């Protein structure tokens, strides 16, 4: 978010442009249901109804977001940061076509449970789309949040290949312990995606890959 990055915002112009392109592909799919999936801490795990609010006040900026349209319900908790970023991206691109739900998944969730969650999502409607959030490794440089780990770049390269090729099998078999060591918060959400897409025969495109601030960022589309 430019407001969070402040003077450093231009460093991620390319990433934001790729996100805009990806959301254009998402909108063109005209789904019956959009499910946003992202990592969440223990208190934020579970489902989020359309209209759930989120905020970036914890990052020092006075910005509030909402997951889709307000439907009159009174959510009991706010969106975790990953889903709040997704809501901000959707608001930024004017998304309003399909009903939206959110799912926060925790880092400890086992692969098979992630995959089954994806299968369950895919069965929710005739045409389901997913917006999947999550960082790759946080150990790409000495100043990275997780310090430098020589395994981080190869891990991120393998994830980038899988996302760019819509390789469901590769995502299903991601090394859970390695992902945890490298602080790759996207592992569980990516495996939810793998479960949802296993029978869909999709093609992929990698739109962005870099490691600003020592953290692996990627943007990809499957269609």
Provide the fold topology.
Blueprint: H1 2-5, H2 13-28, E1 33-39, E2 46-48, E3 53-55, E4 64-66, H3 81-92, E5 100-105, H4 111-122, E6 128-132, H5 152-165, H6 168-172, H7 176-181, H8 187-197, E7 204-210, E8 217-222
Helix pairs in contact: 4-8
Account of the 3D structure:
It comes from Streptomyces curacoi. This is Extradiol ring-cleavage dioxygenase class III enzyme subunit B domain-containing protein. By secondary structure, the chain is an alpha/beta fold. The chain has one domain: 3-Layer(aba) Sandwich (Protocatechuate 4,5-dioxygenase, Chain B). Helices cover 36% and strands 18% of the residues. It has a 4-stranded mixed β-sheet, sandwiched between helices. The chain has a two-stranded antiparallel sheet with strand order 3-4. Helix 4 packs across helix 8. The longest helix has 16 residues. The model has no long low-confidence stretch (mean pLDDT 93).
